[in-house]
Amino acid sequence: MNLFTFIYIIGIFILLNIFEGFKEISIENQLIYSSLSILLFGIPHGAIDHIIFFKKRKITQLKFYLIYLGLIVAFVTMWHITPVISLIFFLLISAFHFGESQFEDIKLNKFFKNTFYFFWGVALLSTLIFYNIKELANVTAYFDDTLILEKIYDIKNVSILFYFTNTVTIISMVLLVVFNKIKIERLFSEFFLLFLIHITFILFPFIIGFTLYFVVLHSLKVMQDEINFFKKDNPKFSFFDFLKLLAPYSILSIFFTTILLLLSYYSYIPYSIPFLSIIIISVITLPHAIVMNIFYNE
User: Fold this and answer.
1) Nearest-10 crossing angle of helices 110-131, 133-142
2) Residue partners of 107: CB distance under 8 A and separation at least 6
3) Measured on CA atoms in the order 128, 134, 135, 137, is the torsion positive or negative?
4) Do 92 and 73 meet the contact criterion of CB atoms below 8 Å apart?
5) Cα angle 257, 263, 264; round to 5
6) Is the pTM of this model over 0.85?
7) Could you give the 3-state DSSP secondary structure of residue 82?
8) What is the dihedral of CA 231, 8, 197, 229, to 10 degrees?
9) 38, 281 contact by CB (below 8 A)
10) Cβ neighbours for 253, distance < 8 A, ≥ 6 positions apart
11) Residue 187: which H helix or E strand, with range?
12) Could you tell me which of 109, 150, 48, 162 has the C-alpha nearest to residue 297?
């Protein structure tokens, strides 16, 4: 069991006690506390994309920012034109990104490696949706602008995706042991983690379950990978040095995200907070996932 799995288990027990004490937590409070957690941990884990990219590739700052911001603007436009396709695209990007960050250390042919990343990530997201599909449908129907997204939550299609991708993922991990790509201890560790993820998505509401996974098993792990990367160049690189690198763009991103959410809350922006939150997270994820793919592979 690694550190992040241990923290994840502690998080599960803490949340179980909270839900035991309060019995039910309103969707509004779930959104508030989950948003704060994602702002504090999720946004910072991508706040040094520019530094990582410049260490991996030679490119002018102007060109980098034009491409990075251009992708964001293009995706925002896509959300405005076709929300359903945009959500599917976001889920597919996220699936690959989650799988890659979890198994970036395995040595495989590029095609098989990328395919495995994708299936693991789709299994994760389909599991989250499968166990919470009624809640998702209710939340989606609660807001006018999210109502169009309910097309994705078809129980038949989600069920097929859930069983198929989880089966493929389990078989693939067994094959990794058979072909000596990972050790048997790693297999049991990954199976245990999958079990914990399933338990989490069953026990907790959609927003809480996803936030726990995203913060602990994804964001914290990625930040640890980034710290290790900087320590290779500078053994004296400290956690405080890392925080100094994260601070500028983290503060800037959190500030503008908060402003946008407040504008939505006071109806200055014609999008509900949940819909706007999905857009913000997705448009940040797109360029971040590209940068991290370069980070893990070059």
Assistant:
1) 70
2) 181
3) positive
4) no
5) 90
6) yes
7) coil
8) 0
9) yes
10) 43, 47, 284
11) helix 184-203
12) 109
Rounded to 10°, the helix 273-297/220-233 angle is 30
What's the mean pLDDT when you consider all of the chain? 91
Residue 281 is encoded by which pair of tokens? Answer: 């997270």
Distance CA 18, CA 221 (A): 25
- Check: CB of residue 42 under 8 Å from CB of residue 219: yes
CB-based contacts of 2: which residues, under 8 Å, 6+ apart? 189
DSSP string, 94-151: HHHHHHHHHSTT----HHHHHHHHHHHHHHHHHHHHHHTHHHHHHHHHHSTTTGGGGG
CB-based contact 217:8 (threshold 8 Å): yes
Task: Show me where the domains of the chain are located.
Answer: 3-23+32-297
pLDDT tens-digit profile of 205-244?
Answer: 998 999 999 999 999 999 999 999 999 989 999 999 999 9
Return the SS3 of 223.
Answer: helix
pLDDT at 32: 76
User: From CA 143, how far away is CA 166, in angstroms rounded?
Assistant: 31
Q: Which residues contact 166 (CB under 8 A, 6 or more apart)?
A: 123, 126, 127
